[in-house]
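User: Can you help me understand a structure? I only have the sequence.
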Amino acid sequence: MRYETVRVIQKGHVVCAELFAYVGALHAQVQLTVSVGEPTAEKKKLATLARESYEAGLKILRPGITFGELCEAMSEPNRREGAWHLSPFAHTLNLHLGVSNITEGIQGPSGFTGVNERLKLKFQEGKEIEASDLVMREGMLIEFEPNACYGRTYLNIGGNVLVTKDGCQGLNEIPTRMVVVPA
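Assistant: Let's start by predicting it. Here is the structure, written out as tokens:
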């Protein structure tokens, strides 16, 4: 059991949550980020990058592309702006095979400083995309989890996206942008 001081959510905090709902014996999920009060410029930038990644995924996702192509398109905004990412940008729900890489850039200039010292090991970035050659087909459900980090500041958004005959359809609206609530 860990005894720690309970954190009280206050003005300026950002709360990130991963919410699960079981549907047909599979767990669908959304990523929700809530800013208490107006976010800082850095948090706004991260929210913009995450949303840009989400939109890049919507733009490219359609039958016939590979899961790897989707993941590469969603990674571009972070790479361009020097942000790192903690969790996958996307993973497949049905078939539950594909997962994008994780922690890319964690040791870069805007990465999480001291990660090796804190974990007492040589941290290896997750560079491989699992099932990158998986071809997208109509009816597949993809979980979008775009996230962006500078240092220890983390932000993610996302939801479920259905591959349709001619493209895709986002199934969630609220969690696909940072939500700002009054402080």
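Now, to help you interpret it: The longest strand covers residues 26-36. Residues 43 and 56 are 20 Å apart (CA to CA). Let me know which part you'd like to focus on.
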